[in-house]
Structures are given as C-alpha cells and as structure tokens.
Specification:
By secondary structure, the chain is α+β, with helices and mostly antiparallel strands. It contains 8 helices and 29 strands. It folds into 3 domains: 14-71; 79-210, no CATH class; 275-445, 3-Layer(aba) Sandwich (Rossmann fold), CATH 3.40.50. It has a 7-stranded mixed sheet, sandwiched between helices. A 5-stranded antiparallel sheet has the order 7-8-9-10-11, with no helix packed on it. A 4-stranded antiparallel sheet has the order 19-20-21-22, with helices on one face. β15 (183-193) and β16 form a beta hairpin.
C-alpha cells in the first residue's frame, strides 16, 4: 500500500490510513524497497480502525511502498502511558525511560507536565514550585509549572496567574490513555472555572508523545555538530553523535558513510561506491537490478558493499549469495539503516572473502543471474580480468544473464575501460555483450 505524503513537514511525521472495517488485531508493516520492518500502530478511529506509522524520510515527489499483513503478535509498546490514580499522575515512559508525567490532582490550580527529562537525564524545565530543593533556581512566578496551559482573560476570570481571584482548571476524566509502538496519547476532559470553581466552559486536551526513530534524546549542541557536517553520517548513542567511519587493517583503506538526498553511499578512501550525481544510491541500485532482469533461482552479488544490490535482488530471487572482501565494510553497513535487510533477510547469504577466490568454489551453472559491481579498476583490477570472467561464465547457468557495472560509459575513464571488458567477456564465452548506458554497465548472456 502506498504511504501518504504529509502536506507539510512535521516535527512528528506520523501518517496513517484507514483499515478495512473487518480488520482485527495488530499489524505488521514492511518497507518493500528495503525489507525493513516499519513500526506501526492500530488505533480506533470512529467506527473503524486506523493504521499509523512513523515516516522517517520521504523526499519531495518520492513514494514509499509498504507491505501490510495482519499480525498475531502484540506490538511492542515503546511509548507507555501509565495512570497512577492514587497519586493523580500519568507517567509517560519512552523506550524504558521516564520522559514526563501529567499531574491532574485537585491540589493543583491547573494540570501540568513535570518533569520533562532530556539528554543525559537533564531536567528541561525548572522544578519550582513543584520542588524547592534544586540549587540555583529562582522561586518566582509560582504559576509557571513546567509545561502547562493557561489564559489570562477568560471573560472576567484570570485563568493564568494564581493571584487572589484566579480561576481553575479541574480535571474531570480521561477520554483516552493510549500506549503503543509509535506514540502514546493522553486525552483529558477539563472544566475551566471561576474562582469559586463554577464552570465556565469545557476543554478537551490532547497530548501525543512519539517514539522517534532510534529513541534518543539529543542536546542541541549535538544536533548542531551533525547539522554542520555536510559529508558525514552519524550514529547516535548515549546522547552523543559518532561519525560512521572505520579504518581497515585488511586493505589499509578508510571507509565512511556519506549522505545523499536518499540512501547514503559508501566512501572507500574518499571514492563513492554508488552514483550520486543526478541520482541516489537506491535508484542507482534499481537501475542495475533492472538491467540484470532478475528472475527466480539463485543470484550472485560479487561485491556486497552496503548490501543494496543483495537486498533488492532478494525481492525476486529465491536466494542471493553476496561476497564482501573487507569485514570493515560490514561494520559500516550494520550502522546504516538502509542496510538492515542485508542481515535480517533469510534469503540473503553473506560470505566474507575475495570474490576472485570464492567464485572458484561454486558449482557449475549455480546461478541464474550475476550482478558484478566491483570497485574501480584501480582498486580491484583482478575483478576485471579474463580469468575471473571465465569463472563467472562457468558458474552462470545456460541462458543466464550477467550485469557488469563499469561507470559512466561515455566518460573518459569509462570509454577506456568498457571496450576491453566487453572483449574479455566475449573471450570467456559470454554472448550478446551489450552496453547499458542508463545503468552505467554492460549485460551479457551465457
């Protein structure tokens, strides 16, 4: 089912769709393009049910395709809303950590939220007058209670201050207390009254608390560091930002994750492993997969990288075997949200090794499709050799197809490389070797 595009950017990008009237129980939602599970929540909506999920990112003009199936397993509630009736307090707990509490007891002039807990268990709002034991706090404006709702002129009634003659907001009942994997919600019915607690009007107050991706709370200084970096992707852990990068003792190369308008790409010693000009790595991958004309059976992906090709191939193939030379690349992939299906999808089998050596271990005619997406000739010249192409020909079944990524065939480097590649493929036994400039590569048949 296609995801809805919100009409404007929202700080809490939760979108939703109505479910069939006969829907019962929870749901399981999966991003078709990545294979990643998407946290979702089924809520009552009038006489029906509504499915809500967090839209982590959707570029302008983009589309998200989701697969929806019923789930017999109760969803994990990452936002818990717990009413402590005796204490007249509702706690909001997000991913196991206390975030705030809604105080609605009659001893207070108005309901309020306190504490509000930020990164490093820091109190975001002051404690006075709820607490008077916090050093350095001013003890003024006692009506300023953390986060609260008030208004100074309700007719002739002051429902802002707590000066003599002030009005009250009296809690009457909760209309909804919801916990869930996407959000928690408190809906309260309150009476606004004059100083003698005579009702002026009725208010319905709704407070929604979201479980954001990652569930982290960040100091603004950390957000500024990430925002100022145009060339890095970051892992958020324990309230701090760590740049996703590593150095390989195997190859002596530096690996990092590089942001784009869509999925990030892998940099190896500063060189991007996907096309990022006028496209993004996800669309680049889909172009390769389309050129390979994937079908059922087994697919060989000779160079795993971030796993985008293996993930896309697994949507069609019965099994995908993907080979990665350097374990450091897998370290980076594990920290990339777009790569998680590489590790979770049972149809994908990962091998750590040199594709040049690993290809020799496969049986004859073992694969119906091969996607060969090597690094540049300068980084991996043996993967462009006639001997290696002969092994690929041997393990491809008759009638099978090979896609070989080169780079821009019309560029200075591409125009030098691809004719030699085509000739060596023909000598290895491949037929109908054809340039596919839209996918930046060649296709060949056995």
């Amino acid at each position: 089912m296609p995801g809805a595009v919100p009409p404007r950017v929202s700080a809490a990008p939760v979108v939703g769709a109505m479910l069939p009237l006969e829907w019962e129980g929870d749901a399981q939602l999966t991003d078709v393009s990545t294979g990643r599970p998407v946290p979702c929540q089924v809520v009552n909506a009038g006489k029906g049910k509504r499915l809500c999920w967090m839209l982590e990112r959707l570029d302008a003009g983009g589309r998200q395709v989701l697969d929806l199936v019923p789930s017999a397993n109760p969803a994990i509630e990452t936002v818990r809303v717990v009413d402590h009736r005796q204490d007249k307090r509702v706690d909001v707990v997000i991913r196991g950590k206390h975030f705030t509490s809604y105080h609605y007891g009659a001893q207070w002039v108005r309901p309020f939220l306190y504490p509000v807990i930020g990164p490093g268990d820091t109190l975001v709002t002051r404690g006075f007058p709820i607490r008077d034991d916090i050093p350095g706090e001013e003890h003024d404006h006692p009506h300023h209670k953390s986060i609260w709702v008030a208004y100074g002129e309700c007719g002739a009634v002051d429902n802002w201050s707590e000066e003599p003659g002030h009005g009250y907001q009296l809690h009457r009942r909760f209309l909804d207390l919801t916990s869930g994997p996407v959000f928690g919600r408190i809906v309260a019915r309150n009476d606004w009254t004059d100083s003698k607690r005579r009702k002026q009007f009725e208010e319905t107050r709704e407070m929604v608390f979201y479980s954001l991706p990652g569930g982290e709370r960040l100091a603004w200084s950390v957000v500024e560091v990430v925002a100022a970096s145009q060339n890095g992707c970051y892992r958020i852990r324990d309230g701090s930002a760590e740049k996703i990068q590593t150095y390989s003792e195997v190859t002596g190369r530096h690996y990092s994750l590089y942001p784009t308008a869509g999925a990030p790409t892998l940099l190896i010693s500063g060189l991007p492993m996907h096309r990022i000009k006028d496209t993004d790595p996800h669309r680049d991958t889909l172009a390769k997969v389309k050129a390979a004309a994937l079908t059922r059976g087994r697919t060989l992906d000779t160079c795993t990288g971030l796993g985008y090709t293996a993930i896309a191939a697994a949507r069609t193939a019965d099994e995908v075997i993907t080979i990665e030379l350097d374990p450091a690349t897998q370290e980076v992939a594990r920290l990339n949200p777009w790569s998680q299906a590489l590790f979770d999808n049972p149809k994908v089998r990962r091998i750590i090794g040199d594709s040049y050596d690993e290809a020799a271990r496969f049986d004859d005619a073992a694969f119906s499709r091969i996607i060969h997406d090597p690094p540049t000739f300068a980084l991996a010249g043996d993967l462009y050799s006639a001997d290696f192409y002969a092994e690929l020909h041997r393990v491809l079944r008759p009638g099978g197809r090979l896609f070989h990524y080169i780079g821009d065939l019309n560029s200075a480097s591409g125009s030098r490389v691809w004719p030699g590649v085509a000739e060596r493929l023909r000598r290895a036994g491949f037929q109908r070797v054809t340039p596919r400039p839209e996918a930046f590569g060649l296709v060949a048949q056995r």
